[in-house]
Amino acid sequence: MRYISLLRGINVSGQKKIKMSDLESLYVKLGFQNVLTYIQSGNVIFNSGIKDRAEIINIIENGITKKYKFHVPVTLRTRREISDIIKKCPFGSIDISLEGTRVLVTFLSARPPQDKLALIKKYVAASEELVPRGKEIYLYCPNGYGKSKLSNAFLENMLGVVATTRNWKSLQKLYDLSE
C-alpha cells in the first residue's frame, strides 16, 4: 500500500530539526519501501505491507523518538485518500492555480466532535472559509495562513486532536509524487 505520512512541527523556527535525507534513511531502516521525502516540513511517501495504520504510526513515531530524542506526531493517509481529498475540494469558485498557497487542508488524527467544530466556526474571519469533512478541514485564507487564527495549535486545542496543515500546492505535489 502507498502511504503519505505528514509529520507535525519539524524544522519550524529551528525546532525539531530533521534532515529529509536522514528521515528517508530512517524510514528505510524501519522497514518501509520506495521512500521519498518532499520539502523540509516532513512529508514522506512510502510503501508498506502493514495494513494497520496505528501500527505504522507507532513504528514511525517510536523510530523518530529513539533516533532524535523528541516526539513528533505523525498523521497518515493513503494515496487514494489524498486523491479523494483533492477531488472533494469545496472551493470550486477559487482558482487554485493562483490561490494554491491560500487553500489548505488540515489533517486531523481523528474525527472531531460536532460540538467542537461548531465552536471554531466563530473564529473564522469574514474573508475566510472553513469546511470540515471527516478527518480533514479545508481552509481558504485569502490574506495568508500566517494571518489566520486557524493555526494547527488553535485547531488542536479547540478540537482535542493532533492537526497538521499542508497548502494545496504541496498536497497536489505529494499526490503526484506518490505515483
Protein topology:
Elements lengths: L1 E6 L12 H10 L3 E6 L4 E5 L5 H16 L5 E5 H9 L8 H4 L3 E6 L5 H7 L8 E5 L2 E5 L11 H8 L3 E5 H10 L2
Antiparallel strand pairs: 1-3, 1-4, 2-3, 5-7, 5-8, 6-7
Describe the fold and architecture:
- This protein is an alpha+beta fold and 179 residues long.
- It has two domains: 2-80, Alpha-Beta Plaits (2-Layer Sandwich); 88-177, Alpha-Beta Plaits, CATH 3.30.70.
- It has seven helices and eight strands.
- It has helices at residues 20-29, 53-68, 79-87, 96-99, 114-120, 152-159, 168-177, and strands at 2-7, 33-38, 43-47, 74-78, 103-108, 129-133, 136-140, 163-167.
- The strands form two sheets. It has a four-stranded antiparallel β-sheet with strand order 2-3-1-4, sandwiched between helices.
- The model has no long low-confidence stretch (mean pLDDT 93).
Q: Looking at the chains present, what oligomeric state does this protein adopt?
A: single chain
- What is the typical, i.e. mean, pLDDT? 93
Count the helices. How many?
Answer: 7
Cα separation of the termini: 11 Å
Q: Which second-level CATH architecture of the largest domain applies?
A: 2-Layer Sandwich
CATH class of the largest domain: Alpha Beta
Fold-level CATH name of the largest domain: Alpha-Beta Plaits
SSE topology string: EHEEHEHHEHEEHEH
Kindly state the number of beta strands: 8
Structural class: alpha+beta
Strand content: 15-25%
